[in-house]
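Before relying on records like the one below, remember that each one covers exactly one chain. Contacts with other chains, cofactors or solvent are not represented anywhere in the record.
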Amino acid sequence: MQNNTRSLDGLSRRQVLRSGAAYLAGALLWSPHGLAAALLPTPPQTVGPFYPNVLPLDTDNDLVTIQGSTASAVGQITHVFGRMTDVDGRPVRNARVEIWQCDAFGRYIHTRDAGRGRRDGNFQGYGQTVTDADGQYRFRTIQPVAYSGRAPHIHFAIHGHGFAPLTTQMYIAGAPENADDFLLNSIQNSAARQALIVTLQPRPELEPEALGGQFNIVLGNS
């Protein structure tokens, strides 16, 4: 994992992510999902065609600023955080969490996606982290955007010992494209479908003008 020490308007990346972790610790105590949702395994979703076929040199959990660059990605800065548990509510430690998503122009960092117009070279597009002792993880990224045929979403892949790997997708509450997204609506169980939909709200305590959303992940039995 790379060192998060780049400056963010006077704060280091490490400070921003630590301050978010402090918020997360409190937020988890007041999870709107409660115990019942925590026992429902997060439904799987397809990996999709644009998992990076060549990983970027910078693969940390801050996708907004690339190491060695002074510019930031285009888009609304968004903190995505959550807690990973098993179906009994026990934290899953040391799990590797990967995310990837398109940039603000709808482009992925994949060679097959090279012909769809402008790409934001300042957006990392892919990141990874490891859950801590309480099963917590977090990412600093941009608010996902819609593109042709798909609602705004972020891809997740989770790997580790003692559980089956999970690939899924996180969607945004209130996005009008949710109603027509074929992958989201392929989940027949309404509670399972709702578990993939996250509300983003202003989180100035994490970072000025940033959004934040809590996406808890429940791993089924291996």
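Confidence is low (pLDDT under 50) at residues 1-11, 21-38.
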